[in-house]
Amino acid sequence: MKALKPWLACTLSMLMLFFMIVPLASASEGSGKKIIVGLSADFAPYEFRKNIDGEDQIVGSDVEIAKRIAADMGAQLEIQDIPFDSLLPALDSGRIDMIISGMTPTAERRKNVDFSDSYYISRQVIMTRAEDKDKYATLDSLKGVSIGVQKGSIQEGIAKDIEGAKLTSVDRISDIVLQLQSGRVDAAVMEGPVAEGQVANSSDLAITAATIPDSDTEMAIAVEKGNTELLSQINGTLAELKKTDEVSKFVQDATALNSDEQKASSNIFNIFWDYRHYYAKGVQYTLLLSALGVLFGFVIGLIVALMRLSNVGILRWIAMTYIEILRGTPMLVQLLIIHYGIAQTFHIEFSVLQSGIITLSINSSAYLAEIFRAGIQGVDRGQSEAARSLGMSYGATLRHIIIPQAVKSVLPAIGNEFIVIIKESSIVSFIGVADLMFQAQAVRSITYSALNPLLIAAAIYFVMTFVLSKLLGILERRWSVSDRR
Ligand code: ARG
Questions:
Q1: Predicted TM-score of the model (pTM)
Q2: Are 184 and 146 in contact (CB under 8 A)?
């Protein structure tokens, strides 16, 4: 029993590490009330990212409204940037308190959420490349044309109603623009002010004369169904704003802010230099995630490997099922289940960073368990026989004889797992962890450069994994030398 203590201490300190470091790293602590607003920051002038004095900020008229609501409630505002079609699930699972993202209160959406009074009216337009402006001047001319829209938006519905149109639904508005510019789609359905902002910033785009019937659409704030208290607070603030027509002013200011975007060159070196802070922050998160993922994966993996090799049938069975399920399902699915599914079912809410680390840990633990098993089985039988015949107990033999040798022999494989995790960790950007991949996407949507921000990220990933594998090589040689002595 006494010998178990180091293990217990180790596990406990790991848990403490997890709950102490991780929330710290995700920042945004503070006492008092906090409201979390979800939005898809790709929708200038309503919500978009902007580099202000070298700092990445989410700005726009919706953000101003959010600030006002938070101030009226005496609460601290937290903003989460989430792809548009994930906003409703995020609200549903209680990860955010409200959506302020230029969202139109449709009958379909009203089934699942409640909407505030509308705070703005917008209209829908068709955007194309400048040279096609006259070609697509009527809705009829769009028959059979490929049209880009944002996934889950009402524009998707509008485009579907155009006869024979071929839809391309993408996550972010910037991707629509990129698809238009690269000729993958020929037109896009967009909200008027958003399209105007794009056209003002890039001379190769234009808004056509095509008119879309019933295209005046409202914007409102969504809250969880039945949350009438929050709703009436929101409506109170909106009523105040309406009295002085402040929302229009917010939109004007945000439009001006969006158009003074200095058109920096999209040369790869300039992008890297201008957005180096984004990449640096991304690298920190990627390394933190991968290191903790492998560390926790190591501990869990070792336990699972021992269960897998135990004489107790049920333990063996549990370990095998664990390994098979984790290796047999995509990590992305695991991530979404942990982040959204667990929150909803058990009302445990992990921060995005915690969900990311949990997913990486359990996923890599399955692979590490198999590595450990091979390592343990690879230790010569004679070793344990000798130890047992000297009177060592089974547990002591494992701890002092088998595991140290096994771990040593699998260290290179663990190093490889670390490298794999560095690359795979890129999927956590899906739920909004600000890792390297996330930052690359953010830079893409700010610069409207499709390729270069990704090339920079690829180069950084490569440098990280290459350096690491060289370091591992050196370590490995050291160890084999010390073995031969
Ligand atoms: N008004 C449209 C809708 O409700 C589009 C909103 C898109 N918002 C955004 N932040 N991308 O579907």
A1: 0.78
A2: yes
